[in-house]
Each structure stands twice: as structure tokens, then as C-alpha cells.
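Quick one, probably user error.
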């Protein structure tokens, strides 16, 4: 006598967690800590959503980087330098890299024609780094590709929701920067 699937499986337990994100449980298991370190238990859904969103975003960035024969760090460099010229030491700080690592990273990008170094006008000992014309073109094209690839997620938001989410994320990032520079 054949048994139905529902007869073999235990009844599903009621859950308050959404079932639309398949990585939710795994992400929660990877990211949650005791309440005393994490904050209120109701923050688990927030943390889960942030981590899951970052996984989706990182996968997208890695794919776009690979399509242009770039590393994720090189994509970050292009994004940082799109609207500024910075000292090598500042670029190292933005990326959280030491001097020898940033020198190698800039050397490789410069050989590829994406970056150029120039003396810092205010500090004769310092060297600035900025995008070359080719680097700027790639950075602009990459930004367009990233926006297009994120569009299926971001287009689900109303303009007001998008403004609110942007403000909230900027507030969280400002706090993260404060913590990074204070300790």
C-alpha cells in the first residue's frame, strides 16, 4: 500500500519567519549570536535581511568584476576613485589594506591603463592616485551594469521606500565608520 508524502512527513511547524528567502535559516544560523552581543532578539530578522542582501549584492559584484577581468577589490578602487583623487595612503585606508598591498594593487591597475599616479600638490612626499580616461570609462560602464543588475531588487521599492532605505543605510554606514575610526 502506497503512503502519501504528507503521511510520511511530520506536520510543518508554524513559523513567523518568511519562507520566500531560501538562505534565511542558514544565514540566521551563521550570523546570530547570544542576545547580549546582538541586541534585541527582534533584530535577527533585520540582521538576516542585511546579510542575505549583502550575499546577493556580493554575488552580483563578483560576477561583474569577473566579466571585466577584475577582482572585487579592483572594482572597489574604481568606485572609490570615480569622483575623487586621493593619496595612496587614503586609498589604503578606504580599502583596509596595508601599504605594500595597495602599492601592488595600484601597480597592476596602472599597468592595465586604469589608474595613474601623480604628485600630491599639497604634500611633495605624497603620491595621489586617480582614474585614467580608460579607468573612468570602465568605472562608468561598471556603475551602469551594477545599477541594471540590482534593478530587479531595487525596482520593488517605491521612491519613498528607496529614499527611506537609503537614509537608513547611510546612517548605519556612518556609525560603522565612526566605530572603525575610533578604535
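Nope, works fine. Designed sequence:
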Amino acid at each position: 500500500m502506497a503512503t502519501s508524502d504528507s503521511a510520511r512527513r511530520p506536520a510543518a511547524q508554524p513559523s513567523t519567519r518568511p519562507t520566500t528567502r531560501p538562505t534565511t535559516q542558514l544565514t540566521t544560523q551563521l550570523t546570530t549570536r547570544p542576545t547580549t552581543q546582538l541586541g534585541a532578539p527582534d533584530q535577527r530578522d533585520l540582521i538576516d535581511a542585511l546579510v542575505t542582501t549583502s550575499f546577493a549584492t556580493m554575488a552580483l559584484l563578483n560576477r561583474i568584476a569577473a566579466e571585466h577581468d577584475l577582482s572585487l577589490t579592483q572594482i572597489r578602487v574604481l568606485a572609490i576613485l570615480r569622483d575623487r583623487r586621493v593619496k595612496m595612503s587614503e586609498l589604503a585606508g578606504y580599502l583596509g589594506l596595508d601599504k605594500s598591498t595597495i602599492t601592488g594593487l595600484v601597480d597592476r591597475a596602472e599597468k592595465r591603463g586604469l589608474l595613474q599616479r601623480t604628485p600630491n600638490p599639497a604634500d611633495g612626499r605624497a603620491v595621489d592616485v586617480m582614474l585614467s580616461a580608460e579607468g573612468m570609462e570602465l568605472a562608468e560602464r561598471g556603475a551602469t551594469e551594477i545599477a541594471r543588475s540590482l534593478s530587479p531588487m531595487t525596482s520593488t521599492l517605491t521612491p519613498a521606500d528607496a529614499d527611506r532605505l537609503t537614509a537608513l543605510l547611510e546612517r548605519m554606514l556612518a556609525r560603522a565608520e565612526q566605530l572603525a575610526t575610533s578604535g
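Confidence is low (pLDDT under 50) at residues 1-36.
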